[in-house]
Every structure is written in C-alpha cells, then in structure tokens.
Amino acid sequence: MTAILPESTTPTPAVDLEAVSKSYRRGDEIVHVLDHFSFTVASGDFIALMAPSGSGKSTLLNLIGGLDHPDQGRIRVAGTELAGLRESALTRWRSRNIGFIFQLYYLIPVLSAARNVELPLLLQPLSRAERAKRVEAALTLTGLPNERHHFRPPELSGGQQQRVAIARAIVTDPPLLLCDEPTGDLDRAAGNEILELLKTLNERLHKTILMVTHDPHAAELAHRVVHLEKGLVGELRAA
Ligand SMILES: Nc1ncnc2c1ncn2[C@@H]1O[C@H](COP(=O)(O)OP(=O)(O)O)[C@@H](O)[C@H]1O
Ligand SMILES: [Mg+2]
Q: Which among 31, 50, 134, 208 counts the fewest CB atoms within 10 Å?
C-alpha cells in the first residue's frame, strides 16, 4: 500500500507564485510583463535567475517583496498570502521577512554605515543598546572592517557599500533575501566576494536567496540557475 504523506508534512515553500499576471500601461500601450507566471522557491534554496533586460525580473522581485501588487494570481511567501495583508501589516511583515539587496545599494549618503544598517530596526521595539549590538553583528558578519563601520557610504568602495547594504538586509534576520543584480555595479573581484558572502549567508544562516543576475560566476555558486529567454511567461522551468 502506498503511504500518502499528510499535507502538513510537506515543507512550505519560501516563495510560491500561482498564475501571476502583471501589466503596466505605457501611454496607449499595455505591457504584459508577467503572464500567468508560476514559480516556486524551496526554503533554503539559492537561485540565480538570468533573463534579458526588460523581461520583468525586477517586477517579479517587487511582487514577491510586496512592493507591488499583481493584477491576477496568488503570491505566497513562507505560507503568507500577500493579498491578505493591508498596507501597514504588509510593511511590518516585509521588515521581518524580506531583505532587499539592489545593484546600486540605495544607502543614505549622509548617514554612517552603522546608521544605515540600523534603519530597519527602527520599526521594531528595541532599545538603542540592542539595536547597536545587532548592527555591529550584521556588519561584522559581512566582513566590513571594524574601523569602517562609522564611515559614510561615499567614503567606502562599491564592494564595501554592498556589504553595508547586505548588513541592512539581514539585520532583522529575515528568512528570504531578494537580490536584484547585486554585483552589477562591481568589478569582478569585488563581485565575486559579494557572491561568496551571499553563499555563506545561504549555507550558514540558511537564508533563502533569489538573485537576479547577469554574472556568470553566480552559476557556480547558486544551487539552481534559471534562464529565461522570452520573458516571464507561463511556467518557469530550470534550464
Ligand atoms: N512602473 C512601471 N510603469 C510602466 N512600465 C514599467 C514599470 N515597471 C516596469 N515597467 C516595464 O516592464 C518591463 C519589465 O521591467 P523590469 O521588471 O524592470 O525588467 P528587468 O528587471 O528584467 O529589466 C519593462 O518593459 C519596463 O519598461
Ligand atoms: Mg531590473
């Protein structure tokens, strides 16, 4: 007799998109960016997503992070259905569940590295001392030298700025990191160091990572490389 696993023992995927559609209006034209797009990321996975420019990669990350809403379809992140959250609940949910890492870092130039990393913690009821402790721990984990924790972003190299941005993304200890071309603005050596750091976060801290990238080195580090040729239409399959 075949044993059937009860549904509750199936691990909840980190990300689960079901027939998601998203279009934008551009003048008179409607651009269908995602068309009934289905996609699953297992918890603990490290996926490199490669697709041509303009094919909807950033749109996809924004939808998964609840920064944008789909026209149709269902998005669940770690079992939470995003459509069920109102804007204020969504903001709180995002601050605990998602870390965003962008190509251009998006650090605040007048604040020190440590102050930038502290920002997401201001949404949580923590003492100043507890915030400082977590900020130091996150920055140290990224390998930014101690003496640079109080430098401002313009005083840091690109690779160091990306380390600060990664510290900001992980300081609230979210299970899922969404990375949008995180090495796109770095030279090869600095880019490789950032990829190694992401791999470490995946292996040691068990962060699930969905990374959009054009970086060929990413293919060697990720568990799964997903190539998309024609945009994010229909079922996504690993190449
Ligand atoms: N807010 C927006 N308004 C109108 N069009 C948009 C908007 N965001 C993205 N697009 C369009 O959607 C398509 C996909 O964009 P994007 O997700 O940024 O692609 P990628 O990250 O793969 O380069 C592009 O044609 C882009 O011009
Ligand atoms: Mg993009």
A: 31
- Per-residue pLDDT tens over the stretch 149-178: 999 999 999 999 999 999 999 999 999 999
Structure tokens at 234: 């229909």
Contacts of residue 33, defined as CB under 8 A and 6 or more positions apart, other chains included, come to 22, 23, 24, 56, 59, 231, 232
Whether the CB of 75 sits within 6 Å of ligand 1: no
For residue 24, give the ligand nearest its CA: 1
Whole-prediction pTM: 0.91
* Integer CA distances (angstroms), 77 to 18, 87, 102, 155, in order: 12, 16, 20, 36
Which tokens in the block code for residue 132? 């400082």
A 10 A CB-CB count for 84 gives 9
- Ligand 1 centre to CA of 130 (Å) is 39
What is the number of structural domains in the chain?
A: 1
Q: Which domain holds residue 49?
A: 44-58+96-235
Nearest to 96 by CA among 178, 169, 163, 201: 169
- 120 CB near ligand 1 (under 6 Å): no
Does ligand 1 lie within 6 Å of residue 33's CB atom? yes
